[in-house]
Prior knowledge:
Distance between the termini of chain A: 36 Å
Number of helices of chain A: 10
Oligomer: homodimer
Number of domains of chain A: 2
Structural class of chain A: alpha+beta
Radius of gyration of chain A: 20 Å
Number of strands of chain A: 9
Strand content of chain A: 15-25%
CATH class of the largest domain in chain A: Alpha Beta
Amino acid sequence: MAVYTQVSDEALTEFLSAYDLGAALSFKGIAEGVENSNYYLETERGRFFLTLFEKRVNAAELPYFIGLKQHLAAKGFPCPEPVMGRDGTALRTLEGRPAVIVTFLEGLSPKRPNVRQCRGLGEGLARMHLALEDFAMTRANSLGPDSWPPLWAGRTDAANALQPGLSDTVEAAFVQILQAKRSFEELPSGTIHADLFPDNAFFLGDAFCGAFDFYFACTGALAYDLAVCLNSWAFDEGNATDASRLEYNFSKGAALIAGYQSVRPLTPSERDALPALCLGSAMRFFLTRLADWSSTPAGALVRPKNPLEYAARLAFHLRMKGAEGYGA
Amino acid sequence: MAVYTQVSDEALTEFLSAYDLGAALSFKGIAEGVENSNYYLETERGRFFLTLFEKRVNAAELPYFIGLKQHLAAKGFPCPEPVMGRDGTALRTLEGRPAVIVTFLEGLSPKRPNVRQCRGLGEGLARMHLALEDFAMTRANSLGPDSWPPLWAGRTDAANALQPGLSDTVEAAFVQILQAKRSFEELPSGTIHADLFPDNAFFLGDAFCGAFDFYFACTGALAYDLAVCLNSWAFDEGNATDASRLEYNFSKGAALIAGYQSVRPLTPSERDALPALCLGSAMRFFLTRLADWSSTPAGALVRPKNPLEYAARLAFHLRMKGAEGYGA
């Protein structure tokens, strides 16, 4: 939860004067988002969200993320749509930070997604991939496979301190990923969300009604996005004390894959690559969490997520032999 | 900023089933409120706020706070109105916490109130006092004068560590407060907010449009409420490094008092008591901040407010001889 940058009355009024949105009627910090400051903003023209991008975001990449959301919205895919000022630009500056207003999106993020929601998410993910087929901008995945060995370097002891022998699991996973890496590069590629966790998706009841937080979006293997979702939607939620007991929920995973394939069927090569892609995506989140875990002082404002939840997924994927084990 | 209690999808759905509000369309943690968890809640019937009361709140007192807001709303005073369930009760349980839904109130809390807003606040405070004249419930002020000596006991060193010689100021203030205390008890009494800081009031432009966060409301001297507001609205905002340079803004203070008197003129005894009431109210916030400051570990989730901002007010009020110094 986060509001890092306070916005003064005068700064907000001046900022809004660049838009045709009328005056502010309500403005409240939202306890969401680890990277940015987010505000609920109501004006005479409706409800919006205002995001201020904090230091961890590379300002040069913001036009990509804004263009992506504009493209999705134009295609009718439900996502927060950047709102243009009267000068036709969506990205401007507020309290010294890059800032953007986006449309309000209705929906709730499921805390424990059910099987029907997993199916809906799979359909939504595939619809998003199709909607982005003709999106012209590209962005390298800064957290792709090449970033993993440097993230792991020097963290063997940190991993084993979390769970004795964990470094063996990580090393074994690296061997499998290295073997599969070349085939990854030949998979159908496009624009992927790369972080479509349950807290980045909206549902009304069981109906998928939107995706947001596109700040890890990039160009990459479409099936990698599916693997990220299998990891984040189809494992039954763990907790800090018992993260090692996380288990793959076959019904949820199979529903997610079936939902995806009902819109965009996987190619044979994507299907074959699924276990390695799941392993790779588990590695990505394990390593960034391990790095955050090691570098965050005790009692910090934002509590880091437990890397062990992803260590459990690594161990699971290491044992998997084929896509059928995931319900594909 | 705070969301202490997470609400599961199932718990929210079950909770809402007790109301005629339809299904949830949006549910977001709000980065406001130090004591409680607050959520923006949108349902098929409109926008609301949901508050979960955390451990620092005495559940036995909640009916008082809810009754107070119901009374104010019935009188047409703008505040969040508790929403009744189908069973006619507003207070129920969610995730093991007492919880209440209140109506959405439009407005923005001024970060640096201007003179016109101070006048509007004074008018609003007096309207609130009049609207509560026939409110039958009572609550003792748990942070009234009798609570101050125990809060101060044992904190001399902590005060002097913040600012050399500060304990002399506090002791001198205690002498003056003790002299005035009996006359406090003879002032016109009623239901007071007791914490109407700028972040607990809403404005649209310069127009006062509501008060909220009534969780310190109690029965007490009406003019004490005015003194709390003079302390929190009419001193130009300081910061942690330079809290001792805070100064009374006479234009703001005079406007606040004039606004109040335009609705409810002060009695001669209230006017005479104003310097001592300002000193007492500054003492109350100085002492609670000092206690929070001493007891909060470095790097805690909620950063305590700097007691020195109120030490500066104590020193100012000690020098004041009469109400005319405040613009009354």
